[in-house]
Design goal:
This protein has about 140 residues and is mainly α. It has one domain. Helices cover about 85% and strands about 0% of the residues. Keywords: Membrane, Transmembrane, Transmembrane helix.
Amino acid sequence: MGDTMQDIVGCLFGATMFAAWAIVLTTLVRLFLIPAYGPEPTYSLFTSPMFSWILFGPAPLFIFIGHFIVLVAFARNSEKKRRFDLKVIKGMALGFCLWLFALTAISYARIDISYGISGIIGYLLMGAVFLLSDHVSITGNHHG
């Protein structure tokens, strides 16, 4: 399989994993929360910034994880690409968790934030954490 084809298949695999994540998560909410609490509180959950972030925030992570899995399975000579994917996955996972923690604090403080703005901030944070971690690893300015 050629490099471009591996990249495409990896991204599609990751997108498929993300779609499965979204379907499973929304199905679980509908199966367990609607019968227990009714449709109105469940609708509030679906439109909350925290749930939206848990649902949609991992999308780039899934895409890079899918790309990484395909690289490991099919690309024997792509160590540089695999290392890059791992750096992206680690940086974005940290950014995802940081924003989830921040959203939890925002929620407890009862501060209103649009779920669209929340997603934009979260994705920017994920990218910033990756870029910062990549810069630190390139320049060697890290401890440990």
